[in-house]
Automatic annotation (TrEMBL):
Chief place where the protein resides: membrane
Highest taxon, organism lineage: Bacteria
Protein name: Amino acid transporter
One Pfam family named in its UniProt record: AA_permease_2
Single Gene Ontology MF annotation: amino acid transmembrane transporter activity
């Protein structure tokens, strides 16, 4: 049974499977389209919201954090690019894991990606609703509060009002409590839901359903608008920069800067989603690697410049707001520009929603084509040339939770699956190099011999921890063994993996860049809360039930290989 669980697909098998499947996707995407989709996914709510909090915590030095994180993301992007040039098939990390690690790991990654894309879009849809409602209010249009929020949020605000009084409520809480009081009721149950979040999901799903050409055109237009406005903010805001606002450059030290590392890293996530469109590219082996690197570089430059302009226009201590780009122009009295930024933020978030809603059905489709999910998920619409059934299911899967759940419930859940996928893709490149599959790659991660450098990096990290991390070491000394297992286990795993990579890197002469990608992503995983891991493990357990109940029996690779392993 173990050999069946870890049976691998060859590159030829994967390509043949995609070509022999019922119905073909329309090949219409070029480099420009892919870069546009990548920017659409990356430049979403992050540059219009979370960049403010990161600047508040770290000051102007956050611009350097964007440089560091961009470099760290490049390690992963290069690994994705090598796989995309080798296996030009939809499926992203799921397909890559099938080649490198076998069916069970592929299933786990595919199941994690389903969670990642679905939860990401729930967050994006709810965030879109908040910006949309705020934009309408700017034009004097006020939707009833009970149509614009999650019922749990309204209930919590109302309960707080009853227990602590009006003085304890923020302006937003007061709006939520009022919405609870005035909502229509069925019996004693108030009718409260986030209508804009549900509607935008339905509209975007419809656009994704009717065709990749239409989705491409919409994405290109929205990206042109938001990048144009961001450039206008950078160029226009530069005239209002006061250099004294950049002093002190790191007011809260390195610790203040690093508090935003997870949020800043997540602001770059999205480049991986364009790999799901491989079968709709005219020349995926050439264009996908170029597009991934280009969209990362463009977004990194935009993030760095916008951070410097924001912290130069307004003191960093003023930026703990949800809409920092609009706020800085209100601060200097240019309200009309704040209005333009507000409208553009709605466009930006819509484009991010479009890309992730485009990506998820193609994961379902690829897993179904391999026999691991119900075959209807692989259905291609004869007219629109899109995975029609999978797209509809994705729409329901995102829209219904977005109507009724708080964003806080979803906001960190995407991280676990994302980092896990990134780690496996980076590790997969090491496997490709070792097994010789890399010889088939049109693009390769630049090889830097890590035989000694991985160990040198570990020694430097331990030295930095000793010299600059005494507070952290003192905290560890006070922890019991059970506390370490409960709260710090992943940190222990991180250091153990680094030690193991030192040994394996010496023996197999591992390439340094994929190893750096593994360590960066694993470190960020270790910083996530226990609740995120608990929900992820529950989702993973559910996925294993589905796999052993259906996928294991219906796997097409099983019918081809019988009891023999397929060696990639």
């Amino acid at each position: 049974m173990a050999s069946r669980l870890f049976r691998k697909k060859t590159v030829a098998q994967i390509i043949d499977s995609s070509q022999s499947s019922q119905g073909a996707l329309a090949k219409v995407l070029g480099v420009r389209d892919l870069v546009s989709l990548g920017i659409a996914a990356i430049v979403g709510a992050g540059i219009f919201s979370t960049i403010g909090l990161a600047s508040f915590n770290g000051g102007p030095a956050v611009s350097l954090l964007f440089v560091f994180v961009a470099v760290a993301c490049v390690f992963t992007a290069l690994s994705y690019a090598q796989f995309a040039s080798t296996v030009p098939v939809s499926g992203s990390a799921y397909t890559y894991a099938y080649v490198a690690f076998g069916e069970l790991f592929a299933w786990i990654i595919g199941w994690a990606l389903i969670l990642e894309y679905a939860v990401s879009n729930m967050v994006v849809a709810i965030s879109w609703s908040q910006y949309f409602v705020s934009m309408l209010q700017g034009f004097g249009i006020h939707l009833p509060g009970w149509l614009t929020m999650a019922p749990a949020y309204a209930l919590e605000a109302y309960t707080k009002l009853q227990e602590q009084g009006m003085a304890a409520l923020s302006k937003a809480d007061l709006v939520a409590a009022t919405a609870y009081e005035h909502a229509p009721r069925i019996g004693d149950v108030p009718i409260i839901f986030d209508l804009p979040a549900g509607l935008i999901t339905v509209l975007v799903t419809w656009l994704v359903y009717i065709g990749i050409k239409e989705s491409r055109t919409a994405s290109n237009i929205m990206v042109a608008i938001k990048v144009g406005v961001i450039l206008f903010v950078i160029l226009g805001g530069a005239f209002f920069v006061r250099p004294e606002n950049w002093t002190p450059f790191a007011p809260n030290g390195v610790e203040g800067v690093l508090t935003g590392v997870a949020a800043v890293f997540f602001a770059f996530i999205g480049f991986d989603s364009i790999s799901t469109t491989a079968e709709e590219c005219r020349n995926p082996q050439r264009d996908l690697p170029k597009a991934m690197i280009l969209c990362l570089l463009i977004c990194a430059v935009l993030y760095i410049l916008i951070t410097l302009v924001l912290t130069g226009m307004v003191n960093y201590s003023e930026l703990n707001v949800k809409d920092p780009l609009a706020y800085v122009f209100q601060y200097i009295g240019m309200d009309y520009m704040a209005g333009i930024v507000s409208v553009t933020s709605v466009v930006a978030i819509t484009s991010a929603l479009l890309v992730f809603q485009l990506a998820q059905p193609r994961i379902w489709m690829t897993m179904s084509r391999d026999g691991l999910l119900w075959k209807r998920f692989a259905t291609i619409h004869p007219k629109h040339k899109t995975p029609s059934f999978a797209t509809i299911v994705t729409g329901f899967m995102v829209a219904i939770p977005a109507l009724f759940f708080k964003m806080d419930f979803f906001v960190d859940l995407t991280s676990v699956g994302t980092f896990f996928a990134f780690i496996l893709v980076c590790a997969g490149v090491l496997y490709m190099d070792h097994s010789g599959i890399s010889k088939q790659s049109r693009f390769k991660v630049p090889y830097i011999n890590g035989r000694y450098l991985i160990t040198v990096g570990l020694v430097i990290a331990i030295g930095c921890l000793y010299w600059f991390g005494q507070d952290t070491l003192d905290e560890w000394r006070q922890l019991s063994f059970s506390d370490i297992l409960e709260h710090k286990l992943l940190t222990v795993v991180f250091w153990l993996v680094w030690i193991i990579l030192c040994v394996m890197g010496y023996v197999y002469r591992f390439s340094l860049l994929p190893v750096a990608g593994i360590l960066v992503n694993l470190y960020l995983m270790s910083q996530l809360g226990a609740s995120n891991w608990l929900i992820f493990l529950v989702w993973l357990a559910l996925g294993l039930v589905v796999y052993f109940g259906y996928g294991y029996k219906h796997s097409k690779l099983r019918s081809v290989t019988g009891n023999k392993d397929t060696i990639g």
